[in-house]
Amino acid sequence: MTMLPKSLDSKLKSLQSDNSSGEFILADAKDADMAFGLSSCGERRPQQSDEPAYRSLQEYEAIIRQIVDQGLVDIMLMSARTADRLARREGLFANSAMTPAVRMNDSTDIWLAGKDYSYANEPSLPFSTASIAHAKTGVVDSADNSHASVDLGLYSITLNHDVARDRASLLAYREFRHEAERAGFRHFLEVFPPNAPSDLKPADYAPFIADSIVRLLAGVAEAESPQFLKIPYLGPRLTAALCEFDQTIVVGIMGGASGTTHDAFHLLAEARKSGVRAALFGRKINGAEDQLAFIQHLRQVADGEIAAREAVRSYHAVLASNGIEPKVALEDDLQLTAASQGLGESGVSKDTASYSSATAVASSTAR
Questions:
Q1: Backbone torsions φ then ψ of 366, nearest 5 degrees
Q2: How confident is the model over 200-213, as a mean pLDDT?
Q3: Where are the residues of the annotated region Disordered (predicted)?
Q4: SS3 166
Q5: Can you give the pTM of this predicted structure?
Q6: Which of 16, 42, 79, 150 is least surrounded by CB atoms within 10 angstroms?
Q7: Which helix (H) or strand (E) holds 183?
Q8: pLDDT in tens, 264-278
Q9: How many domains does the chain have?
Q10: Which residues lie below 8 Å from residue 82, measured CB to CB, with a gap of 6+?
């Protein structure tokens, strides 16, 4: 399948040669069905008493089509099932500059079925439901990779300062990298905060993540390297240090917990100041009153075209003009909460960029 040139490819090339080029990679995460159950696709709004509370997968896919048509994000991250339907069978991305991507592993800390998320209380164990072969071509054995519809995946690891479990996670990542290199399959690396650390204090999470990333990547050859990183915002000092350590590595942030609209835009603006050049927002986009308008303003903040507070005011103005009732009043939505801070350098905010609501790191599920 012949595809249009992708904005991701041109931006990566530009950033890897000059991190100050001004390019910014923006991604939407529509892979929540890899973690949650029936609530994966988000709540219907406005809610009608005679219908299910949550969107169906088909409604979820309809929103993905709208976002692809809008063309403002560079990557659409999906589950293998959704990507198989939209990217392979439907060919949704063939005439789009957007790059489809698949979540390639679902380690145990994102197993969030049920009410108490009991799996997420246990230290992360590596596991992958999806396979590279199926992500690329839809079948386990394909003699013709020229028909691949997806060539990019997200791989995530969660390190807990537990030598045996962390070794198992790193070994699984090594196996994935080697398989991906053989298959001509690219990936970006997500590093979650510890979900059940054995002996780390909250104030140690951010430096532990930064040091672990540097140590991990030191053993990775260029041919198997991640295209970019997706990590919690570590605060201005540590984030800047990580971005400056090797400027050929594009550092991206995850969107964080559900909070105010100002939380989302402020987090993005602050990360950009620290040298971050990519961001993946999932829950914040999917929970927005108007996803297209929210993405429009994310793009403007990411590109430095508008300040965070002004973006909030502009977003509410769009809601009003579209006849959409906001979840909270403008003045309340202009507030900043802990959700805007990511992993602080003197401690950990209550709402951080972790899937789990049952860990020492987070009290609400987030991306």
A1: -155, 165
A2: 96
A3: 343-367
A4: helix
A5: 0.91
A6: 16
A7: helix 163-183
A8: 999 999 999 999 999
A9: 1
A10: 30, 31, 33, 57, 60, 61, 64
